[in-house]
Amino acid sequence: MTRNQRIRKTRTDADLEEKPKGGPRPNREQGAWITFLSKRQGLTWEQIAQEAQVSGEMVHMVIYGKRVSSRVQKIIARELGYKSWIDLLASREEVAA
To answer: What is the pLDDT along the chain (97 residues), one digit of tens a residue?
Structure first.
């Protein structure tokens, strides 16, 4: 087996592995809820982005379910006073009920 074949095989194996990507994606209503909570606390996406060392756009995409990042989700939840991302998403359902 040549070096290129080994590299190709390794990449193929790595591509097939499923890696955890984070918690569940919020729907539009949950994203609006998270935005409401952050505004109520005077917290901007840029502040969250700075803490997470990502862009404000990335924070927006995570909040509205366009991207998934467990690290950013944890930071958002923590900054909003929740123990976990799941607790944050569940808080919207509690208010709606």
So the answer is: 666 655 555 544 444 444 456 788 888 999 999 999 999 999 999 999 999 999 999 999 999 999 999 999 999 999 999 999 999 999 877 665 5
Q: HSE (CB half, 13 Å, CA atoms) of 26?
A: 28
What's the first-to-final CA gap in the chain, in angstroms?
61
Provide the whole-model pTM. Answer: 0.73
The answer for residues whose C-beta is within 8 angstroms of residue 77's C-beta and 6 or more apart is 83, 84, 85, 87, 88
Q: Name the amino acid, one letter, at 40.
A: R
